[in-house]
Amino acid sequence: MEALKKNDIKQGHVVDLTHEGHGVVKFDRYPVFIPNALINEEIEFKIIKVKKNFAIGKLLEVKQASEDRVEPPCKYYWKCGGCQLQHMTYEAQLAMKKEQVVNLFHRKAQFNETLINDTIGMEDPWRYRNKSQLPIGKDKDNHTIMGYYRQRSHDIIDMDSCLIQDQQHQEIMNHVKQWLNDFNISIYNERTKKGLLRHLVIRTGHYTDEMMVIFVTNGSKFKQAQLLVEQLTHTFPNITSIKQNINDSHSNVIMGQQSITLYGKDKIIDSLSDITFKISDQSFYQINSSQTEKLYGKAIEYAQLNGQETVLDTYCGIGTIGLYMAPVAKHVYGVEVVPSAIKDAKQNATLNGFDNTTFVCGKAEEVIIEWKQQGIKPDVVMVDPPRKGCDETFLQTLLALNPKRIVYISCNPSTQQRDAQILASSYDLKEITPVDMFPQTTHIETVALFERKEDK
Ligand code: SAH
């Protein structure tokens, strides 16, 4: 084959989709990855980057479109880095997510026997985000802008709507932006590290409609804060809490350690099934509430509790999964590394009247060793780590604890597959269910059931 060169214009048939949702065209075995191309399409594209093992192409024209192609409803879709799959029907998105899991577990690993279910989707896969984190900046005419980042960059796209966000967040975003412009409020500049306002963060209790608005500032002095509070609460009387979070760091981390309550309560309340949760500004809370109920529902089905079990909820956040299980377990032990989340978990246990829970702040890989030394013998262990998956010492201790079942929730199936290979020495990976927590994006969430092998 003649080598591909930058700026070559080529035509080809898309044979595959990557986990980032990019179409793959092959020349002999050499792949070209083309964003926004769909499987089975005939396309024309331009080579924009050539590497040793692959090239990147830019889609120029779809000669023959896939049946899965739709017009993206969002006017910012082609620029914004928030969504990646709006040009696909929702059915195709769900099928693609399942296919990625099949590929990882059946083709790239030894789990051929594992049942992989269809992705559990949403009835209406829009406006699902209960949390918006909006960077604030200035455009070249010195106007305050707010929205999401452009793909693979930190340029802010100024937006007046976002179709995966809660509708009220959009209205608050537009109102705050207008106010910041009218009063010429100082805005943080990522390059110079100077200026005041960095981010607007909004959180809503999905079932309670309680709402928290957080202004992230560089430094604590925010002299117009009271004026803004009056404005906002007048226009949006359903806001329950307004906070200022102070972030002096020069990093990309959105929130700092310290928060001040400017108005109302310092936490908001939400409920999932019959359990009530208090959520503080810095704690992790699943951003798609109705899908979280389906995810936890599946996890509880896999856990098969009858009231007699000792359960570990590892990487527990504010204790949501453990508290879900507390009514049907003997005792639940939770561990989480963020102190404010553990404080919330303990309060949430009291709030719901549970006296059979223990929440510990620390690293899961360390606390699980302490639990083992204390002689705690779990029947079921829930595992829900961040994207990087579990620490190897954690998995080795988990194997030594030898629970009957392990239910592993993951937001990154490739690290879940890696960890599953370690657990496979003593456990059968019975079943995996993908749950679509993030429609219109390439993010995949899965819940997996491991059962102890009979002879162990
Ligand atoms: N189970 C919770 C949270 C899952 S997100 C829920 O469903 O809401 C993963 C959580 O793991 C985060 O809260 C994060 O703070 C926590 N975490 C990250 N590394 C950790 C570690 N080494 N030990 C314990 N918790 C950790």
From TrEMBL:
Classification via Gene3D superfamilies: 2.40.50.1070, Nucleic acid-binding proteins, Vaccinia Virus protein VP39
Keyword annotations of the record: 4Fe-4S, Iron, Iron-sulfur, Metal-binding, Methyltransferase, S-adenosyl-L-methionine, Transferase
Any one Gene Ontology molecular-function term assigned to this protein's record: 4 iron, 4 sulfur cluster binding
Domain of life from the UniProt record: Bacteria
Enzyme's top EC category: transferase
InterPro entries (alphabetical): MeTrfase_TrmA_AS, MeTrfase_TrmA_CS, NA-bd_OB-fold, SAM-dependent_MTases_sf, TRAM_dom, U5_MeTrfase_fam
BP term (GO), one: rRNA base methylation
Domain TRAM: 1-61
Keyword 4Fe-4S tagged: yes
Protein name: 23S rRNA (Uracil(1939)-C(5))-methyltransferase RlmD
Taxon lineage: Bacteria, Bacillati, Bacillota, Bacilli, Bacillales
Name of the gene: rlmD
